[in-house]
Amino acid sequence: MAALVFAVVVFPVGLVLGIVALARVLRSGERGRGLAVAAIVVAGLQIVAFASLFSYAVLSDDQRSDRAGVGGPRPGPSAQDDGGESGGREVSVFDLAVGDCFSTASEGDSVTNVTVLPCAGPHESETFAVFDVDQYGEFGVPYPGEEALFDAAEIGCAEAMPGYVLDVWGIPRQVTWFYYYPEETGWQYGDREVLCYFGEVSGGELAGGSLRGDAAALTPRALEYLEVTAPVEGLISREPPPEAPLGARRAWAAEMAEALASEADALAANTWYGEVSRLVDDLVEARRASLDHWRAAADATASADLDARVELGYSTLGVEIEGEIRELLDLALG
Prior knowledge:
The protein is of the alpha+beta class. It has ten helices and eight strands.
């Protein structure tokens, strides 16, 4: 009986006691052969399970040690990457949280560790979203390929970005967003996480200060306007490049048409006051007028036709009206 207890609680000891007990029973003919065999079996199973978990943990540490990134060129180590004197601390890229500002000395596509820095000082990047690629979330699902992850990351980051900064027009022109995504090896060990971050277009350092928006600094009307216009702003931020496949660009144009129609309806349904009300009516009219161009772009059969329609779509959005509305609402003017 003692062997069985040890097999459950301290399985290496239980295994030894079980073997000794079984040998004694076989020699003497005493009762207890079943308990001795049970102790050996239980202890053996626990050892196998422990070995499997230990192997997985070791492999996980080895294989999930880095993450691939889509972003601009990374500069050499920052002057603050000293890990202490300037307040920086080195962490795994997997431990970054929304709002963390950081720098990395990595010059390739894979990143293992980064240095978290105070946002008030110089830093290369600022995390604004972290999410799992839910459509591929089950463990054991084959790696979907980089292109599929690019699509999921770009959609997720673009949707999250307006909610973090609140006013997209306030993002400095030299700043854009990038993301880290799971590599194939890490995917096999359960890595499904995408991390979105802001960075300087040329890879240099960001000026001190966070890009996170402060809702308390905005009026309720301004927040309402930003909420309604956020989906279109997010879509504009992930416009496919000219060299992207025609099908991808057509799909994006179709999304733009749908989002613009929804925005126009929402703007028209909300109650605005004074001069803002008149300008919003003008903006709704412009948005709806631009829909024909976006829908034509979604149906284009040639890149040149799509390019022309997208250009017309942008030119008829009523951006100048937006500027007037923003000025009245004390929002950024770009």
